[in-house]
Design a protein that fits this description.
Blueprint: E1 3-6, E2 10-16, E3 20-33, E4 39-51, E5 58-68, E6 71-83, E7 88-97, E8 106-113
Antiparallel strand pairs: 1-3, 2-3, 3-4, 4-5, 5-6, 6-7, 7-8
Length: about 120
C-alpha cells in the first residue's frame, strides 16, 4: 500500500432530447502517501453521449481535466457502449493525452452490470 486517496465529487447530468445526454463530474482530490506529504488537486470531467435510437448502445466523448501543482493534465476519452443483455453492457474506451508529451495513449474495457428495474 502506497497511501490513501480521497476524492469527493459532485455530479450534474442533463438529457437533451431523446438521444443526447451530458454529464459533469467535479471535485477536489487529496492523496496522502505513506511518506506523509499531502498532494492536492482538482478534477473536472465533462462528457456528452449519443444514445443510438431503439437500443441501449451509445457513442460518446469524455474530457478529463486534472489540476495538480499549477499544471493542467487533460485526457480525451472517446467511447462506445454495447448492450450484451438486459443487465450486462460492455464499454470500450480509448485514452488520448492532450497536454502531456510524455504520456502514452491507452485503451480499457468496462464491464457494466445494471440490475433489472421493477416498474
Amino acid at each position: 500500500m502506497e497511501g490513501n486517496a480521497f476524492h469527493p465529487f459532485a455530479v450534474a447530468a442533463k438529457r437533451w432530447g431523446r438521444s443526447f445526454h451530458s454529464m459533469l463530474i467535479a471535485g477536489p482530490e487529496w492523496e496522502l502517501p505513506v511518506t506523509g506529504q499531502l498532494h492536492k488537486g482538482f478534477n473536472i470531467d465533462a462528457s456528452i453521449h449519443y444514445m443510438i435510437p431503439g437500443s441501449r448502445n451509445l457513442l460518446g466523448i469524455e474530457v478529463n481535466n486534472e489540476w495538480q501543482n499549477g499544471t493542467v493534465l487533460s485526457t480525451l476519452r472517446p467511447q462506445i457502449r454495447l448492450t450484451l443483455s438486459q443487465t450486462v453492457k460492455v464499454g470500450f474506451v480509448a485514452s488520448i493525452p492532450l497536454t502531456r508529451a510524455t504520456a502514452s495513449s491507452g485503451f480499457f474495457i468496462r464491464l457494466i452490470y445494471e440490475p433489472k428495474r421493477n416498474r
